Amino acid sequence: MTSIQFYILASDKIEDRWHYTQRLVSQSLRGGKSVHIHTACSHDTRMLIERLESSTGIADECLFVDHKGEPEADRQVLINLSEEVPHFFSSFETTLEVIHAEPKAKAVGRERYRYYQERGYPLRHHEIQLELAII
Question: What is the mean pLDDT of residues 69-79?
Answer without folding.
Answer: 80
